[in-house]
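Weekly sync, protein design subgroup
Attendees: M.S., D.O., the rotation student, P.L. (late)

Item 1: inverse folding check
M.S. brought a backbone from last month's batch and wanted to see whether the design step gives back something sensible before we order anything. D.O. pointed out we never logged the input encoding, so this time it goes straight into the notes. Structure tokens as presented (205 positions):
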């Protein structure tokens, strides 16, 4: 595949691992991975009060007989105003496990799918001369994208690029350690730095 710079000039080529970028798409596995991500990110802090937690008296509100009302033993049941909630939500963890092999295969499948759609661009370096957003935005418009994700190496990202890209709408940066199926599918184009490509190959091969 061609290796470009941020001006969209071709500066070389990159060889891609067929076992990572040449797989068929597994929609069911991608869906399962996104479910796994969404479930893991849920806070699960919803809570309603049970009878033991509601403020009020546990004393019998009125006598058993003679009032004409239905018998009651407390003012805390759900049928009373200000009473407890019957079978309400409690704090819980929504996350579930996904096998390492499934996670790897889902990532490979998402990368392969993006490549077949010509939505992955390989960049030699994200280094820029200054942190002016206007200048970086001009360069990136040449790539014709709706939204873009820039994947950088473990060594870090250029400070100027980080500052300049932070004000451009629908543009995000992510370390190769954090690549995930949800982001790969959410963003229109994926820009992969040459150094991070080597790290992705080591991680997923």
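Designed sequence read out in the meeting:
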């Amino acid at each position: 595949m061609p290796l470009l710079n941020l001006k969209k000039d071709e500066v070389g080529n990159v060889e891609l691992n067929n076992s990572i970028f040449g797989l068929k798409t597994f929609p069911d596995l991608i869906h399962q991975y996104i479910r796994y991500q969404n479930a893991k990110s849920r806070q699960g802090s919803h809570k309603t009060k049970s009878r033991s937690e509601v403020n009020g008296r546990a004393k019998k509100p009125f006598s058993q007989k003679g009032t004409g009302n239905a018998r009651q033993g407390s003012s805390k049941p759900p049928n009373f105003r200000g009473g407890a909630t019957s079978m309400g939500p409690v704090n819980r963890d929504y996350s579930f496990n996904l096998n390492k092999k499934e996670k790897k295969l889902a990532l490979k499948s998402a990368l392969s799918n993006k490549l077949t759609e010509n939505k992955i661009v390989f960049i030699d370096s994200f280094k820029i001369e200054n942190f002016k957003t206007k200048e970086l935005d001009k360069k990136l418009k040449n790539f014709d994208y709706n939204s873009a994700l820039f994947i950088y190496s473990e060594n870090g990202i250029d400070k100027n690029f980080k500052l300049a890209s932070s004000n451009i709408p629908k543009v995000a940066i992510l370390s190769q350690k954090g690549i995930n199926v949800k982001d790969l599918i959410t963003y229109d184009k994926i820009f992969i730095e040459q150094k991070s490509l080597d790290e992705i190959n080591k991680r997923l091969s």
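Discussion: The mean pLDDT is 93. The two ends are 18 Å apart (CA to CA).
Action: P.L. to compare against the previous round before Friday.
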